[in-house]
Amino acid sequence: MSSPPPTPDQQSQRTAEAKAAFTASLRSAATNYDSQLRDRARNIHDNATVLDKQEADVRRATEQLAKQNDQLAKVADQARDGLKEIGDVQNWAELIERDLLIVEETVRLAEEREECHDGHEVQVDGDGNNLKDNGKGKKGQKGWFWW
């Protein structure tokens, strides 16, 4: 029992129906993918807005950090300059102290010479220290300054 061969009209109608069914299945699959792609595109678009906002926040924070870094660099430079000044003051103080010691030693030697000329006996060691108490201070004491 075989069926009679289809007529050309039936053949073309079957072909049209097959094409329509195939096109409908493609559209159905495309719609399924299309909705997924539309959801992804919407998500990407929403995330792009959030990312732009975050980028602006990061840019502002970076600018604030740069300003703070500049301020800290100024403070560090001021501290460095202050330390240099302290070193300069210390050096200056050491030079003045050395000069005062020289003046003190010169005055001491002048006083000893004056005492020698006044008829007092003065004995000094190799460093110029007074070895004998002559009523002017303790034995071996040096001058006016005590540091």
UniProtKB/TrEMBL annotation:
InterPro entries: BLOC1S1
Gene Ontology process terms (BP): endosomal transport
Keyword tags: Coiled coil
Region of interest (Disordered), residue spans: 1-21, 118-147
Record bears the keyword Coiled coil: yes
Coiled-coil region(s): 51-78
Signal peptide: none
GO cellular component: BLOC-1 complex
Pfam families: GCN5L1 (PF06320)
Highest rank taxon of the organism: Eukaryota
Similarity section: Belongs to the BLOC1S1 family.
Name of protein: Biogenesis of lysosome-related organelles complex 1 subunit 1
